[in-house]
Amino acid sequence: MIAYTTVGSNDxxxxxxxxxxxxxxxxxxxxxxxxxSGTGWGVGPDKPMFAVLKPFxxxxxxxxxxSMVSLACxxxxxVQELYAKALELGGKDEGAPGPRGGGFYACYFRxxxxxxxxxxxxx
Length: 123
Description:
- The structure is a single chain.
- The protein has helices at residues 12-27, 76-88; strands at residues 4-8, 30-35, 38-42, 49-53, 69-72, 92-99, 104-110, 116-122.
- By secondary structure, it is α/β, with parallel strands linked by helices.
- The protein has a single domain (4-55, 68-122), classed as 2,3-Dihydroxybiphenyl 1,2-Dioxygenase, domain 1 (Roll).
- A hairpin with a 5-residue loop joins strand 7 (104-110) and strand 8.
Protein backbone atom coordinates (compact mmCIF):
# COMPACT_ATOMS: atom_id res chain seq x y z
CA MET A 1 0.00 0.00 0.00
CA ILE A 2 2.85 2.46 0.71
CA ALA A 3 4.51 3.73 -2.48
CA TYR A 4 7.15 5.94 -0.91
CA THR A 5 8.01 7.94 2.19
CA THR A 6 10.11 11.06 2.57
CA VAL A 7 11.77 12.86 5.43
CA GLY A 8 12.91 16.45 5.23
CA SER A 9 16.41 17.76 5.81
CA ASN A 10 18.06 21.12 6.24
CA ASP A 11 21.45 19.64 5.29
CA UNK A 12 20.73 17.28 2.41
CA UNK A 13 24.36 16.35 1.76
CA UNK A 14 24.82 15.22 5.37
CA UNK A 15 21.45 13.44 5.39
CA UNK A 16 22.20 11.64 2.11
CA UNK A 17 25.49 10.36 3.55
CA UNK A 18 23.62 9.10 6.67
CA UNK A 19 20.92 7.30 4.67
CA UNK A 20 23.39 6.00 2.09
CA UNK A 21 25.27 4.21 4.87
CA UNK A 22 22.07 3.06 6.53
CA UNK A 23 19.91 1.96 3.60
CA UNK A 24 22.62 0.68 1.29
CA UNK A 25 24.62 -0.83 4.15
CA UNK A 26 21.79 -2.66 5.94
CA UNK A 27 19.25 -3.35 3.19
CA UNK A 28 21.33 -3.29 0.00
CA UNK A 29 19.08 -0.50 -1.30
CA UNK A 30 19.95 1.22 -4.56
CA UNK A 31 19.54 4.87 -5.50
CA UNK A 32 16.39 5.35 -7.58
CA UNK A 33 16.85 9.08 -8.06
CA UNK A 34 19.20 11.82 -6.97
CA UNK A 35 19.16 15.51 -7.57
CA UNK A 36 19.77 18.89 -6.02
CA SER A 37 16.77 18.53 -3.71
CA GLY A 38 17.65 15.06 -2.39
CA THR A 39 17.95 11.34 -3.01
CA GLY A 40 15.61 8.34 -3.02
CA TRP A 41 16.44 4.66 -2.47
CA GLY A 42 14.61 1.41 -3.02
CA VAL A 43 15.09 -2.34 -3.05
CA GLY A 44 13.07 -3.01 -6.20
CA PRO A 45 10.77 -1.30 -8.69
CA ASP A 46 7.67 -2.85 -7.10
CA LYS A 47 8.71 -2.02 -3.52
CA PRO A 48 8.26 1.20 -1.53
CA MET A 49 10.90 3.89 -1.89
CA PHE A 50 12.47 6.05 0.84
CA ALA A 51 13.76 9.56 0.14
CA VAL A 52 15.38 12.44 1.98
CA LEU A 53 14.59 15.85 0.47
CA LYS A 54 14.69 19.58 1.01
CA PRO A 55 11.09 20.70 1.60
CA PHE A 56 9.40 21.63 -1.68
CA UNK A 57 7.99 24.85 -0.18
CA UNK A 58 11.54 26.08 0.58
CA UNK A 59 10.73 26.46 4.29
CA UNK A 60 12.97 24.77 6.89
CA UNK A 61 12.46 21.06 7.43
CA UNK A 62 10.85 20.30 10.79
CA UNK A 63 10.13 17.10 12.67
CA UNK A 64 6.49 16.06 12.90
CA UNK A 65 5.42 15.31 16.46
CA UNK A 66 4.00 11.79 16.37
CA SER A 67 5.34 11.14 12.86
CA MET A 68 7.60 8.18 12.23
CA VAL A 69 8.78 6.04 9.33
CA SER A 70 9.42 2.39 10.12
CA LEU A 71 11.62 0.17 7.96
CA ALA A 72 10.72 -3.51 7.52
CA CYS A 73 13.48 -5.86 8.62
CA UNK A 74 13.81 -9.55 7.87
CA UNK A 75 14.48 -10.68 11.44
CA UNK A 76 15.58 -9.45 14.89
CA UNK A 77 19.23 -9.57 13.81
CA UNK A 78 18.55 -7.08 11.01
CA VAL A 79 16.65 -4.82 13.45
CA GLN A 80 19.76 -4.87 15.66
CA GLU A 81 22.03 -4.20 12.68
CA LEU A 82 19.87 -1.26 11.57
CA TYR A 83 19.91 0.28 15.05
CA ALA A 84 23.67 -0.17 15.48
CA LYS A 85 24.38 1.29 12.03
CA ALA A 86 22.11 4.30 12.69
CA LEU A 87 23.94 5.09 15.94
CA GLU A 88 27.32 4.54 14.27
CA LEU A 89 26.33 7.11 11.60
CA GLY A 90 25.38 9.70 14.21
CA GLY A 91 21.74 8.86 14.86
CA LYS A 92 20.31 9.19 18.37
CA ASP A 93 18.72 6.41 20.44
CA GLU A 94 14.92 6.45 20.82
CA GLY A 95 14.54 2.82 21.92
CA ALA A 96 17.01 -0.07 21.74
CA PRO A 97 16.07 -3.23 19.82
CA GLY A 98 13.81 -5.59 21.66
CA PRO A 99 10.40 -7.24 21.85
CA ARG A 100 7.49 -4.82 22.00
CA GLY A 101 4.69 -7.35 22.57
CA GLY A 102 2.45 -9.33 20.28
CA GLY A 103 5.35 -10.77 18.27
CA PHE A 104 6.60 -7.27 17.37
CA TYR A 105 10.39 -6.73 17.58
CA ALA A 106 11.53 -3.15 17.01
CA CYS A 107 14.08 -0.37 17.47
CA TYR A 108 13.75 3.40 17.26
CA PHE A 109 16.23 6.18 16.52
CA ARG A 110 16.40 9.78 15.31
CA UNK A 111 18.26 10.70 12.14
CA UNK A 112 20.60 13.71 11.91
CA UNK A 113 17.64 16.09 11.42
CA UNK A 114 15.64 14.62 14.32
CA UNK A 115 13.21 12.55 12.21
CA UNK A 116 12.06 9.47 14.12
CA UNK A 117 12.82 6.21 12.30
CA UNK A 118 11.99 2.69 13.38
CA UNK A 119 12.91 -0.78 12.30
CA UNK A 120 10.69 -3.78 12.97
CA UNK A 121 9.93 -7.39 12.20
CA UNK A 122 7.45 -9.95 13.40
CA UNK A 123 9.29 -12.35 15.67
